[in-house]
Design a protein that fits this description.
15% strand, four-stranded antiparallel β-sheet, globular, binds adenosine monophosphate, binds zinc ion, 16 helices, alpha/beta, five-stranded parallel β-sheet
Length: 464
């Protein structure tokens, strides 16, 4: 069955055909690691995870690359403002390298708790500085760059079709770009490829380059690393919708200017998570909620958020509220109960999958990842008259896309909110190597009737 995906580049749903048959090169813009990811960021990573799982469900082998922006991303997207890593370093009294390492680990834990599959390749911007410099040199040789006192810039007027990804025209983009003024830029939309360290000042993260000591602009890392790790298998590139007008528009301009070829075929963007009546959740705002604050500390399992994300199509805004997350928690519990009933009496899955229901599920997810419809198919299947063992086999097949750990509903049921909080507190104690606290929490959990086992995948609780 054909997979259709909405392509921001053409503004329509298109039949997805990869460059090489059977394989997909997927690049997803990763986190800027100067703070925790908020649940808005995580909504985007859940959408991308569903995309990857749907591609796999369709039989494709996916080579997935995700970057970690650990350098040179300024507080304004347009090359002005403070360096986020250095600001994080001052805020917490750690080195910029320490900040990057800490928040990259925190991000990996967040995505693990949401059953987001790890990329095939993680790549850090700081590990690919030579590749970024090479790309800037090519652009320089081809005449797309100019130098100002603070860096090397890309001249957007030299790249025809600069605004093609954006739904705004070039004039509107330039108008937007004028907010942050840099009088030396030739065009308001021009962007930095390399920023020079200020004269006389030393930055924590800086490198030598043909233009002087400094650091790469933010956009160049994704162009350089996607080509470095995907070669010419540039099928799908994703991010949140805030990346369309600046980050991805600039990536396309500099990549296509350098290679003379089309960069990615498909561009996909997830809509925002909003809060308090339509306000975008942002790291710079006070409305910033992490997985821990919004869910775990309130005894709500992280997977309830994954389930919540499925209730709204990824291209529609999602509104966060205490009620909506509670409703998602109940929805997930209900689904787990339904699955549990199928295995009552210890019968395990037959492995038989109902092909008619699988077909309907595939039709839903292949229609631009329509998860609300896929969930309706799940309920239709569970309420149908096929035998329970076949329902069980089918739901586990669907779970390859859902990623709700529906094969583990039996273990999950037993954990009360109180035990979950203790498990979470212990995870944090171990993370900060507070062994005394970790032992105390282990004893507390065990006194509630569990055996605690520490495994490579985290804590496992067993019943004696
Ligand atoms: P950042 O760490 O700021 O680079 O953002 C990581 C990802 O989260 C990017 O793909 C952003 O487009 C996305 N993002 C940022 N804010 C939101 C939001 N409120 N809702 C959904 N996605 C977001
Ligand atoms: Zn990017």
């Amino acid at each position: 069955m054909q997979l259709y995906l909405y392509n921001t580049l053409t503004r329509q749903k298109e039949a997805f055909v990869p460059i090489r048959s059977g394989e997909v090169g997927l690049y997803t813009c990763g986190p800027t690691v100067y703070n925790f990811a908020h649940i808005g960021n995580l909504r985007t990573y859940i959408f991308e995870d569903v995309l990857k799982r749907v591609l796999t469900f369709n039989g494709y082998t996916v080579r997935h690359v995700m970057n970690i922006t650990d350098v040179g991303h300024l507080t304004g997207d347009r090359d002005m403002g403070e360096d986020k890593m250095e600001a994080g370093s001052r805020r917490e009294g750690k080195t910029a390298w320490g900040i990057a390492e800490y928040y990259a680990q925190a991000f990996k834990q967040d995505i693990a708790r949401l059953n987001i599959l790890e990329p095939t390749i993680w790549c850090k911007a700081t590990d690919s500085i030579p590749e970024q410099i090479d790309l800037i040199r090519i652009l320089e040789e081809k005449g797309f760059t100019y130098q100002t006192r603070d860096g090397i810039y890309f001249d957007t007027a030299k790249f025809p079709g600069y605004a093609s990804l954006s739904s705004q025209n070039l004039e509107a983009l330039q108008e937007g770009a004028r907010v942050e003024k840099n009088p030396e830029k030739r065009n308001a939309t021009d962007f930095a490829l390399w920023k020079l360290s200020p004269p006389g000042a030393r930055r924590q993260m800086e490198w030598d380059s043909p233009w002087g000591v400094g650091f790469p602009g933010w956009h160049i890392e994704c162009s350089a690393m996607s080509m470095q790790f995907l070669g010419d298998q540039l099928d799908i590139h994703c991010g949140g919708i805030d990346h369309i007008d600046i980050h991805h528009t600039n990536e396309i301009a500099q990549s296509e200017a350098a290679t003379g070829r089309k960069f990615f075929n498909f561009w996909m963007h997830g809509a925002f998570l909003n809060i308090q009546g339509g306000k975008k959740m942002a790291k710079s705002e006070e409305n910033f909620l992490t997985l821990d604050n919004a869910l775990v500390k309130r005894g709500i399992p992280p997977l309830a958020y994954r389930f919540a994300a499925f209730l709204t199509h990824y291209r529609k805004p999602m509104e966060y509220s205490d009620e909506s997350i509670q409703a998602a928690k109940n929805g997930l519990e209900h689904l787990c109960n339904q699955v549990r009933e199928l295995t009552d009496g210890g019968k395990s899955a037959s492995g038989v999958v109902s092909s008619a229901h699988r077909e309907k599920f595939l039709e839903a997810v292949n229609d631009d990842l329509n998860m609300p419809r896929a969930l309706a198919v799940v309920q239709e299947m569970l309420k149908s008259d096929i035998p329970p063992s076949e329902k069980h086999g089918t739901i586990l097949e669907f779970d390859r896309v859902l990623g709700l750990s529906l094969d583990q509903v039996d273990q999950r049921e037993e954990l009360s909110a109180e035990v979950q909080l203790l498990v979470e507190a212990r995870r944090r104690a171990r993370e900060s190597k507070n062994w005394a606290e970790s032992d105390r929490l282990r004893d507390a959990i065990q006194s509630m009737g569990y055996i605690v086992k520490d495994t490579r995948d985290g804590i496992k609780l067993l019943k004696p």
